[in-house]
Amino acid sequence: MLHVTCAIIEHNNKILICQRSAFMKPPLKWEFPGGKIEAGESRSACLRREIREELGLEIEVHEELTAVTHAYPNFEITLYPFRCTVTDGELMLTEHAQVLWVSPAELQRYDWAEADVPIVNELMQLWS
């Protein structure tokens, strides 16, 4: 079981979404940025580290949303989503094919990684 955090980064009524590179599994799917929790690391510390490494941004971690457990064919993941805001940094890509700032209403237009779909649905309810 993988334990992974993800950031719902909000700015000016938009949310940052990331498209996985062609080399990532599942490839080219959209996701909320984040990564694996290391031994002894808190979820919020993991999220701040991963966003700094992957996107060059410093974030403030706020409310935790509902955790999602999903079984892919070769592994199982528990995803811990948090609402976040940017405090510093300049957006850069190190792992993803592209990133977009989208309105909550636009979230369902994208082809999401399966584990992220329940988070998209929860966000749609929060902003409806």
TrEMBL record:
Enzyme class, first EC level, given as a word: hydrolase
Database matches in Pfam families: NUDIX
Nudix hydrolase domain span: 1-125
Transport is among the record's keywords: no
EC numbers for this chain: 3.6.1.55
Protein family according to the UniProt entry: Belongs to the Nudix hydrolase family.
CDD domains: NUDIX_MutT_NudA_like
Keywords for the protein's UniProt record, in alphabetical order: DNA damage, DNA repair, DNA replication, Hydrolase, Magnesium, Metal-binding, Mutator protein
Catalytic reaction annotation: 8-oxo-GTP + H2O = 8-oxo-GMP + diphosphate + H(+); 8-oxo-dGTP + H2O = 8-oxo-dGMP + diphosphate + H(+)
The keyword Plastid is annotated on this UniProt entry: no
Protein name listed in UniProt: 8-oxo-dGTP diphosphatase
Cofactor(s) essential for the protein: Mg(2+)
